[in-house]
Design goal:
Layout lengths: L2 H9 E3 L5 E3 L17 H12 L6 H9 L3 H12 L23
Antiparallel strand pairs: 1-2
Helix pairs in contact: 2-4
């Protein structure tokens, strides 16, 4: 059954008199998806696995399996070379303490 047919079946239902009742689709907007966050260990493991790929198409298969993009590998390699590979929660966010002094 196609998705369009299942939507049509859900929005058209017979009422008590046997007549068809058409319901409007739900107008509620779904919340925006959150970004994925990767740990430093995961990034390093994926980089090792990608560099171990010998055959054509193995890196692509790895990326599809893990749900990643080639830009992830590029950025993670740059960070690793700079010694800045960090994972979830390793970067403090917000205003720096003492960064703003109030003078009267």
């Amino acid at each position: 059954m196609s998705q369009q047919q299942s939507i049509q079946q859900q929005s058209i239902q017979p009422n008590l008199n046997g007549k068809l009742k058409v319901e409007a689709p739900d107008p509620e907007v779904v919340p925006r998806a959150k970004r994925k966050q990767f740990s430093a260990e995961y990034k390093l493991r994926i980089l090792e696995e990608a560099e171990g790929c010998q055959e054509p198409g193995q890196v692509g298969a790895l990326l599809r399996r893990e749900g990643l993009y080639s830009s992830h590998l590029t950025r993670w390699r740059q960070l690793r070379e700079a010694g800045q590979v960090q994972g979830v929660g390793s970067r403090q966010r917000g205003r720096k303490s003492g960064a703003r002094k109030i003078c009267y």
